C-alpha cells in the first residue's frame, strides 16, 4: 500500500518551544545577552537538512566539522573541499547507514577518522551536572560543539533515536537549543535540559547501550595528508583481522630471525582482497594533483604531500621494505596489491615485467620477474615536446636488467628528472604504502617476536619518537584509525568510546 505524502510535523509544545515563535525569539535574545549563544553563529552558518531519513548522524557530523573549519583534504564537487554526508563512510558503508542509521559509537569513530578531537560520554558515564557544564562551555565558545544522541519520544515527537547538534543554552530557564537536522520534520526548538538528559538516558535497542553526547573540537594537528584507512569495501574486515590478530601470532614462530623474515611473514600471507584495502590507504586524489591549474593553496598541499613521501622514503624501515620487495623472495605478482591503475609508474612497472619476459623468450606471463623500482624521466630535444620515458629495474632470481618504456604522449605534467638524476615520486608506490602501513600498526603487533635482539630492532624501526613531525602525525593518525577499526571489527566501538591509546 502506498504511503501518503507528509509535509512536516506539528512540533509538540510543550515540552519544546519553536525557535521562531515569540517565546523562542525571546529566549534567543536573552541567551545572547548572557553570552551563551557564541557557538550558535558558526553552526547556523552550516546548518543543513539530512539528505536521507536515516542520515541524521552524518548530517549532524558534517555540519559540525564544517563549522569547525576542519579541511577534509579531498574534493566534494568541482574544486571545493567540503564535508558532505557522502564523504563520511570510513567506519560504516553508506548503504548500511541509509538502511539502518548509525550507532553512537560509530559516529564517534567517524568524527575521529574525519580528523576531529572527540570526547564522548554515555549517560551512565557522566552526570546531568557535567552535561550542563559541557553545554555551557561549548555555548560560550565557537571552538567546540555538542552533538546529542536522544530518543524523540521523550519530547512527544514521532520517531525514535536521533542525532542533532546543540546550538545554544539559556541559563535562566535551563534550556538547550536543538538544531534539528531533520528540518523537513521539525524546526529548531528549545527543550528543558533535564528533559534532554532524560531523552539521552535511554537504551538504544540496537546496541544495548545508553545514548549520550559527544564534544567535537578541532585537533591540535591537521588530519592526515596522504594516508587514511577506510571500510568502503568489505575487505577491510578480513584485512584488519589479519594485520592486528593474525600477524602477531605468525610472528611467534621460532623461524623469525631477521627483518626480512618479519616482512616475509607479514606480506606473503596477506588476504587475497588486500588490494581493495590498500587502495584506500594511499588515497592521494591524483585527479586533483595532476591539474596544471593549481591554486597556491593546492600547490601548498601538494608540497606537503611530497614532503611526507620524502620523509617516508628516508626512514630505515623503508630501506628494508624496498630491499625485500626487490629480493628473489618477493615478486610483484605474489603481493595481493593491485597498485593504482592510473599511476604511470605502476603501469610501467607491469609493462617492464612483461617486456623482460618477452626479451627472455617467455611469451606467457611468468612469476619469475618483478620490478625493483621505476623512475619517470622527461627529455627535451630541440624545443620539441618532452618525451616521457619510464625506466625500470626488473629482477629475475639473482639477476637484474634495466628496461626503458617510451611513452608516446602524456597529457599532464609528471614529476620529471633528467638523465642520471634522482627521481622524486609525487604519489605513493608499493614500498611507500607498505612502509607507512607497518609504521602505523599497533606497537604490540611485534611483541610476539621471540628473538630479543630482533624485537628491539623492530621496535626501533617502527618507533615514532624520532620521526619528522609531518610523518609522525601521519603515522599516529593512521594508528588511531587502526585501533578504532579494531573496535569496529570486534563490535567494541560502542563499548569503548575513549580516544585510542597510541
UniProtKB/TrEMBL annotation:
Record-level Gene Ontology MF annotations: glutathione gamma-glutamylcysteinyltransferase activity; metal ion binding
Signal peptide: none
GO biological process, one term: detoxification of copper ion
Start and end residues of each Peptidase C83 domain: 1-221
A Pfam family of this chain: Phytochelatin_C
Enzyme class: transferase
The species this protein was found in: Vitis rotundifolia (Muscadine grape)
Keywords: Acyltransferase, Cadmium, Metal-binding, Transferase
EC number(s) per entry: 2.3.2.15
SUPFAM superfamilies found in the cross-reference section: Cysteine proteinases (SSF54001)
Protein name according to UniProt: glutathione gamma-glutamylcysteinyltransferase
